[in-house]
Amino acid sequence: MSPISPDPVQESLSRRWNMGYTSVDFLTRCISICVGLYFLDNEAVQKLQDGQVRQDDFEEMVYNALNETDPEAAASFRGFSQTRLREEDFQKLFSYWVGFGEDKRKLRVFLERLINPHFARAYRPDLAVSSWLERLAIKLLPESGGTFYNGTSGMGGVALKIARIWKEKKLPLQVLTSEGDQHLYRLSVLRAKIHGFSFEQTDKDCLRTEEPSSKVDLSIMFPPLQAGSSIYISDSLVCGKDWSFAYRQLEALNETGVGICRVPNGALFNARNRAFREYLLNQNVLDAVIALPKNSAPFWPSAPATSLVVLRKGRKRGEAIRMMELPVSELLGRKNYFKTGRAICVSPAVQERNIPACEFAMNDYNLSPQRYLPTEWRNDGGQWRVHNSVKESGDAQIRETVELGEVAKIYRGINVAGLSRSETGIGVLRLSDVRDGEIRKEGVTRYDVTDGEKQMRYRICEGDILVSCKGKAIKLCLVSEDASLLLSHDFLGIRVDRAKVDPWYLYYFLQSPTGWQAFQRIQMGSSIPMIRAADLERFPLHYIPLAKQTQCAAELREANALVEEQLEALEAERQRAYKRFYQQTEMEDDL
Fold it and tell me: What is d(CA 278, CA 282) in angstroms, rounded to the nearest whole number?
């Protein structure tokens, strides 16, 4: 038997660089060899160790062994093993893994490591789901026997987890899965057999196949975030693609079933899905919405922000919806992570009820948890804690939070798409015209805007604060003097009521860590984050008396000005030092 390497998986993967295969092809072949060795008895493995075997002969041997007891698994093995290596490369890889073939437990551990994370990362990183997120979804389900359905099973990770947990709790559970990707479907069939479970699995896309033969009690789905297709519920109601998997899940649940589905955050508030959200509320099936940290997709850094939507049939009419936000990403994996989330109950309609949590009225069918949660996460000495924005300080002075719309007017910029450029027109401020917090007037594009009403509506004034409303990076600028410029639709303008707020105080507050965290909560959208005027109006502003605002802002401006003067002086001194260096080394003439 070959000596066991300290890390057989990494040792095997390192061989790929010398063989020249893609990660997916090489991993597929590694997995198929390990699966085959797992299903062969030790006597057969011992014979394979004593000689060489061709790829086709090995697959035929495994297929015949599987076909005697499980024809579906045999067919899945044959379909999954279609990837071919050069025969000499297969011999090297096979001779390495055959050394572990007799220890089935260890071989299963190695096989799981090949599948997750390596195969998940290489094959479809957008489909990979973190283990902690799978566990969280399972924790949200009621502990009862019955039927479980996953219509987007992928490699079968969630189905295996829930089957194992329910078995440990001695709860009867029938598991049904569906997966349209043939490669993943075959792998999920093999994984189930390796772990000793018998699932009812289909190789169909759950959007294009019939519902399960009988309604199910429990369901979890983590659908691909860039897939789906619209579904016509009626002549007047369309379920958009972002909600299509959740709708299919809802249709599969029985009269008291519970389902959990991941959806992109944009689907919770955007205009095109408003009618379907209204439909969900009218059907009284929406039980909870849980906002996830931004890095909850393990191998996909650019993944859109997502939330878990909990659907429950049989709810009492008038029950509140639980809105929850999990902690910031720095807390992932820590002990009691799931207990540190913050939550609130939201009523679909305004009426009195006895609910053991704060209660807010549903706003315009908006299902975004950040809309209703009044607290924020702060880093307190290296520890992230929930901080209430309204509290009493030690000196008994009340620190209040007001919505920005109460003390300022928010105005939108003009859309230049339909305007003609003109050298004699009026300048319109675009994103590129604001750099380092200042307006760069040179190079501002001019447009033919003759409508006097539009000029008044979009003109920026001294004291206005400009906030970029498109893109992840946010630009801020305080207009220090009146300028004959209009604001473009790249920005939102804030014009404060100077009897209530000092512009410079607001400007510095928006730049603070508290301000940036609040911006992150109101940024919505998948590919291009956006800030809406309505959300900026609800922006929480830490409010102190006006006189103190002016005093604190003036002191900070004075300190900044002094620092800038010192930096300019230091920069000038540095330039003089370089000049002396060039003179002393006689490089000045060359320069």
Answer: 6
